[in-house]
Amino acid sequence: MKTLEHTGLEDIEDIIHKCDICFVGMADTDGTPYVLPMNFGYYDGSIYLHSAQEGRSISILKKNPKVCITFSTDHELVFQHPEVACSYRMRSKSVICWGNVRFEEDFNKKIKVLGIIMKQYSDKEFRYSDPAVKNVKIWVIKVDEMTCREFGVPHKR
After folding, report:
1. Residues 25-40: pLDDT tens digits?
2. For 108-118, what is the mean pLDDT?
3. 3-state class of 19 per DSSP?
């Protein structure tokens, strides 16, 4: 089985939009890694996340805003020969993105971002109460670098 690299933006965005969570990796100032599964929105080269106003991730990001975000979908166990353990592999597609977190504080922009995040999960239009918007921390990550791979592809392809 082989690994394919995809470079077309349409293919990459298709994988991102198929996902229901992403994994956000960050590093504390002592180098300790910290990874969170998060809901997200993606639009026009940026990833949007939301969280509580305070917590471990916010403390880390205030000191080091660099993040690595991974999306993974279409998981399927495949093999070349059913009796050969090392021929088994998890077939999947993944996108890895790198960028820096910026926190959005503007009330109206926060509402727009919440709409982008909800669009990932529903076509329904939502309203947001003032307290909800004020109490949410909005993360904006403009993607600086992105890679996309498909794993476990049969050689016949």
Report:
1. 999 989 999 999 999 9
2. 97
3. coil
